[in-house]
Amino acid sequence: MLLYTSPSSQLTTTNPEEVLKRYARGERDFQGINLSEEMLSWVDLEGINLSGAQLYVSILEGVNLTEANLTRANLSWIDLTAATLIKANLTETNLHKADLRGADLSGANLNGADLTSAVMSHGFDIGILKLAAF
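Structure (tokenized):
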């Protein structure tokens, strides 16, 4: 089943291992990819473009998504515990019921993001985060 074809190559992505191989070769554009119900834990994906991606019900525990583009991605029911999302673009991203406990969202852009029922660390104030988002 073809889930994604890069405009720059004929490689197809059907699993997380292929994404990691392509990322290691320097590819960063994975717009619209479907990795729902997959696991990509404790890997470095700094600067990756996952805009419009489908990652619902996935496990991305501890993943480094520093400066990642997750604009309009579907991250509902995702496990992002202990993930690094520093300066990530989460504009209009669906984070409904996402587990963000221990995630670092410093400088993340959450404008228009759906954080309905998202699980945050104890004492985390989402209102302050929205005000601090650029």
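Residues 72 and 93 are 4 Å apart (CA to CA). The helical segments are 16-24, 126-132.
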